[in-house]
Amino acid sequence: MYADQSAKVKIKKYQELSPDAKANLSFTKIDLSNLLEQIMNEFEPIAQENLLTVRTIRDQTPIYGYIDTEKMVCAIDNLLMNALKFSMKPGEITVRLSAEEQHIYFAVENMGKPISDEQEKLLFERFYKADLSRNEHHGSPGAGMGLSIAKNIVDLHGG
User: Are the C-beta atoms of residues 30 and 69 closer than 8 Å to each other?
Assistant: First the structure.
């Protein structure tokens, strides 16, 4: 029952953030380094409970950008939870944040079960699951929308 409710919430969120939808973004100037630090302070204990260490690589100086904070936190959360769910355990998740000229780069890296190049190309597609058998080992099967939602949010921010 919970998985069905979670899927419905994700579908609604996807519809709200779809490139076809008129998303109402509220851009404010924010220090992304500070935001990432706050997110990681909440995420690291969860990762540790799952036998994962987290390595954060970022500039020590502020990185300012105009973002919709609520939506960007949602995107980052989706990326982190996907890495948590599909990382080999024990293992490591690496999070990177950097800025170069007018661009801000954010990446989440983890080591999981290998997937093909073709599967990798489809990871950010709505409802796509690279390997259904992966879900047997990770509890909740998910809706296959988290990475798609994250991609849509990034696209709405010009990324």
Answer: yes
Coil vs helix vs strand at 99: strand
Q: Number of C-alpha atoms within 13 angstroms, CB side, residue 16?
A: 11
Q: What is the pLDDT of residues 71-124, one digit of tens each?
A: 999 999 999 998 999 899 999 999 999 999 889 999 999 998 887 777 767 665
- Alpha-carbon distance of 46 to 44, in angstroms, equals 5
**CATH topology for 2-156?**
Heat Shock Protein 90 (3.30.565)
Q: Name every residue whose Cβ is closer than 8 Å to that of residue 62 and which is 6 or more positions away in sequence.
A: 31, 33, 34
pTM for the model stands at 0.77
3-class SS at 93?
Answer: strand
Please give the pLDDT value at position 115. Answer: 75
Structure tokens at 71: 């939506």
CA-to-CA distance for 109 and 73, rounded, in angstroms?
A: 17
Q: CB of 80 within 8 A of CB of 43?
A: yes
pLDDT above 80 for 53: yes
DSSP annotation of 102:
T
